[in-house]
Each structure stands twice: as C-alpha cells, then as structure tokens.
Design goal:
eight-stranded mixed sheet, CheY-like_superfamily, alpha/beta, 10 helices, Bact_response_regulator, 348 residues, 45% helix, Alpha-Beta Plaits
C-alpha cells in the first residue's frame, strides 16, 4: 500500500482517481489545486504524487518544479495527467522532472498500474544505488588509490564522450536495435480539391508528429505520404519501457485518425541508421533514413495490413514482444516471406 497524493482541480476527475486508488488498496489524500497540493506534500511526504497538468494558479509543471527544488520531496515520483490537447507542452513537464504521464481519458486500472510501476522502479533504483555505494566504499577501504584512479578515468571518459556527443549532435545516427513504426493515417488517395487535401495532410501529419514525440520517438521522418518513427528499443523512461510507449503511440494515432479513412500502423524491430543531410549552400539540414532490412520489413508488414484491412500489425517476433499490451489476431505472410500478425486491443 502506498500513500498517494492526488492534485486535481476537477472534482469529478479527482473523485474517480481517488476511488480507483482506494479500491486498489492505497491510502489517498486529495488537493484541489497546486499550492494546496505542494503544502500537503510538505506537511506529510507522500510515496507518489498524481497531478493534473492544466490547473488555474499553478500548473502541474510548476508543482513538479517546486517539489524537485525541495530536498524533502525531490525524490518523490510524480505522474502527470494531461489531455491530448496538451501534447505540445508535455516535454516541458518531463524536463521539469516528472516520472511518467497518462493521457485523459484513462482507465482506472491504468492509473493503478502506473503507480505500481513508478514505485517499483524507484525501489529498484534505490536498491541499485545502495549496492553501488556499498561497493564503492569497500573498494575505497581496500584500494583507495586505485579506486580513485578508476573514478578519475571514468569521469574523464564521460566528459570526453559528452563533448563528442554535443559536437556531433546533428551527425549520423545509428541504433543497434530500434522499434520502427510506419503510419498511414489517410489511406489511398481520394478525389477532392487539392488545397483541401493538402491542408488535411498537413494537419494529420503535424498532429501525428506531436503524438509520436510525446510518447518518446527519437526521430519522425516522412515516408512518402506516410510517417516513420524510430523508438530506441533499449531505452525507457524511469517507468515506461519502449514496448509500452510504442503501443500507446500507435493507439493514440489510430484513435485520432480522420473519420472515414482506413488508417494503418505497422511495427517492426531491428537495426536502423539515419544519415545527416546538410546542404550548406541552401541552408537545409536534417536526417534521412537509410534503406535496410528493418525498413523493408516494416513496409512489407504495412502492405499486408492495408490489404487485409488490419488497423495495427507487426512482424511475428515483435508481436510476441508486444503480447502484454495487445491481443494477437490473424496471421498472413508478407512479400518478403516474413509473418505479419494483426494486433488487437488487449482485454481490460
């Protein structure tokens, strides 16, 4: 059981969250706005804070910033609640120090799962930290000079690597393993005014980009009239693994696809390389995808899904990795000989 503080200005939303968490066995305190929430946290340190983003007077971002500046609250996990209309501001909250976020509307069990995840992650971090400290102390007592020398060398390597990374931030990028999401939210071209179609493409792609970056995509690139997003397979936020983030991204894209359009999303995993394209004469700069097995694989799965009328599909090995987040549906071979698997919403 955890001591949870809910900061939410909407009475109905606060009641639903409180009821769900109490039912899950947690002790719950409530605050109707940011200042009262911060005061409640200072008066009695909670195990985790659930905070709405858009509140009058003090936003969720400001609540997180105040907590991170307070030594007594700096390590308290914070889960932000936001509507999709807030997606362009979401990175501000994560930069301020939030541990996770849920988009409204959410299911009560999703909130309970998010709280369990942040608490488990924080406990694991604390255990790893204590183990690391213990090992460092023992080594220092036995071989102080050697330990200090290793620490100095490690620090020097980190400094050099950090400077090298900053100097080559716009250079080529490669991933040994990455999830690649290919999204077509408009389907085959339809007849209509060119200006109207162009505006629709612009709106849909911009919204899709915001959503993909919100859920942690490292790169989002045009792929014909479609979009291709790269998620680092081995990277996770403090609480959210890559598999969870990419499934949330796919679900959000499909929910917000234009009505009446046969939207299709395909997912594959493998090595990915992007090269920097810098045209110094004209001032253009950006990245472009290098064709390879991973790109060809996700394209083939997308072709099968579109032909079969599936909304979401993945290659068989990726589908197995995503089985905790989706039910596996029909199977069909791709033109490359791989097996495409339909992904369906997991049962609540």
């Amino acid at each position: 059981m955890a001591n949870v503080l809910i900061i939410e200005d909407d009475d109905a939303q606060r009641f639903v969250a409180s009821f769900a968490l109490k039912k899950a066995g947690h002790a719950v305190r409530e605050a109707p706005d940011g200042p009262k929430g911060v005061a409640a946290a200072m008066a009695e340190r909670p195990d985790v804070v659930v905070c709405d983003v858009m509140m009058p007077g003090m936003t969720g971002y400001e609540v997180v910033a105040q907590m991170r500046n307070d030594p007594g609250l700096a390590n308290v996990p914070v889960i932000l609640l936001t509507a999709m209309s807030d997606r362009k501001h979401m990175r501000q909250g994560m930069t301020a120090g939030a541990d996770d976020y849920l988009t409204k509307p959410y299911r009560p069990d999703e909130l309970a799962e998010a709280i369990n995840a942040v608490l488990a992650r924080r406990e694991a971090q604390q255990a790893a930290f204590m183990s690391s400290v213990s090992n460092v102390v023992e080594d220092a007592l036995e071989q102080q000079k050697e330990s200090l020398g290793r620490q100095y060398e490690d620090q020097l390597v980190r400094e050099i690597n950090a400077r090298w990374t900053r100097a080559n931030a716009a250079g080529d990028v490669s991933f040994d393993q990455a999830y690649v999401l290919l999204a077509d939210l408009l389907g085959p071209p339809t007849q209509g005014a060119a200006a109207e179609l162009a505006e629709l493409v612009k709106q849909v792609q911009q919204s899709a980009r915001d959503t993909l970056y919100l859920f942690g995509a490292k790169h989002v690139l045009p792929y014909g009239t479609r979009l291709m997003a790269v998620f680092a397979a081995d990277e996770a936020t403090l609480t959210t693994p890559a598999e969870t983030r990419i499934m949330r991204a796919a679900s959000a894209l499909l929910k917000r696809a234009p009505t009446g359009r046969p939207a299709t999303v395909a997912i594959h995993r493998g090595p990915v390389m992007l090269v920097a394209v810098d045209d110094g004469l004209h001032g253009d700069q950006g990245h472009t995808m290098v064709p390879g097995e991973t790109i060809l694989g996700v394209d083939a799965v997308h072709d099968v899904a579109a032909a079969q009328g599936w909304r979401l599909a993945a290659t068989a090995d990726v589908a197995r990795k995503l089985a905790d987040h989706a039910a596996l549906g029909r199977h069909a071979p791709t033109a490359r000989g791989d097996e495409a698997v339909e992904l369906l919403p997991a049962k609540a």
